[in-house]
């Protein structure tokens, strides 16, 4: 039930959202897509919870900073974490799988959404995931993956490297 | 394989080891000056947020406390200003990232990686050396435990640190240290404590091997070789060193406690500490007060480099659990104080 990426027309594939017996909310993404989500799941977002407390029962909550693809992912996460009977272990496994397939730029989008919606667990996990991907990687790998161009001169770069030579030990080769 | 354990008892060996946390290797500023660090109660996730950069979460701005249907114009206008660069990342995604997200991500980078990542680009280089970033970095939960060994041969003293999270050794030269005869006492919160003999005076030296900074503590009231234990309080950004007689030593000497916040040794009723780091990472701690009673604490998880502050009660010590590396999410408030 994981949400898919955008289709070739640029439209997001809407995840199948369970219509629970509990009251549902509609979340509206920046590109106008609407998603139904149970209140219990939505309440895991502190930002949405605050909006619900401000009496918007049954309303549509516009989220002008989150695009549909990202929102679909966030909703998948919230649904799992609000699931009755899901143990912490289940959730942990889910989180791992959920994040493992994402590219860095997707992770960044989800992190931004997690921050915006104030879902601390998701935000932390995504940031940690991004960092884990950088471990033991070369500087060149980091630049390539995050599409950063070095603005150092060769001499400046060499100087930093020389100063902390120990920090360059054990770096994976770029071929990996 | 490195010898592991009994870190604080390994006085005369050249190769000794102890468990450290890599959590706050970068508390350089703290090192020179125990500036009081506020931040209590701040829910802001980024130091830059406090410095006036925008905060992307509406719940913290309380902007969203508006009616659900149709945000008011001002709010929408505020949001749309952010929308384009933040959401649609283009070629250089990291150049487009909001500063506070980049900070959040870099704050989770293990301290060892900070130095390498400085060479990525000028922006990263400047963030990774920024004082408020480094403070923020030291507040983020554990980067996991490390095994520290100290090796001194005739030429180059060096610390070898094995980072458990990175599963990697780093050989950090300690040539910046003075040329005394000294031995490893222990480490906590990224700081490493040595005991040394400069001529006829026992010295206590605390250093940060990553930033290559060090300082000596004032002289003990009693110039004796003592059992030393160092504890760092990351929340408080301070450290304490406790000097006691070991169980075979002169029990008539009072216990001395150094507090980095006042930069002084204070004298306390005699107590004697002995800590053992067991094979499974369990710290066993023994506290003896006078001749009256002895207490053993077992099952102190790694990272709980114990022995804390004195209280006004008698007996005057409590054992403070400083932090847990086993569960990096353990909130600070769960630290325990067990008065003896």
UniProtKB/TrEMBL annotation, chain A:
SUPFAM superfamilies tied to this protein: POZ domain, Skp1 dimerisation domain-like
One GO BP: protein ubiquitination
Residue ranges crossing the lipid bilayer per the database entry: none
UniProt keyword list: Ubl conjugation pathway
SMART domains: Skp1 (SM00512)
Cytoplasm keyword on record: no
Record-annotated SKP1 component dimerisation domain positions: 121-167
Family annotation (InterPro entries): SKP1, SKP1-like, SKP1-like_dim_sf, SKP1/BTB/POZ_sf, Skp1_comp_dimer, Skp1_comp_POZ
Pathway where it operates: Protein modification; protein ubiquitination
Domain SKP1 component POZ: 25-82
PANTHER family: SKP1
General function of this protein: Involved in ubiquitination and subsequent proteasomal degradation of target proteins. Together with CUL1, RBX1 and a F-box protein, it forms a SCF E3 ubiquitin ligase complex. The functional specificity of this complex depends on the type of F-box protein. In the SCF complex, it serves as an adapter that links the F-box protein to CUL1.
Family, per entry: Belongs to the SKP1 family.
Oligomeric form and interacting partners: Part of a SCF (SKP1-cullin-F-box) protein ligase complex.
Official protein name in the record: SKP1-like protein
Organism: Sesamum angolense
From TrEMBL, chain B:
Keyword annotations of the record: Kelch repeat, Repeat
Domain F-box: 91-137
Superkingdom field: Eukaryota
Region annotated Disordered, chain positions: 33-70
Compositional bias (Polar residues): 43-60
PROSITE patterns, A to Z: FBOX (PS50181)
InterPro entries attached to this UniProt entry: Beta-prop_At3g26010-like, F-box-like_dom_sf, F-box_dom, Kelch-typ_b-propeller, SCF_F-box_component
PANTHER family: BNACNNG10540D PROTEIN, F-BOX DOMAIN-CONTAINING PROTEIN
Record-given protein name: F-box/kelch-repeat protein
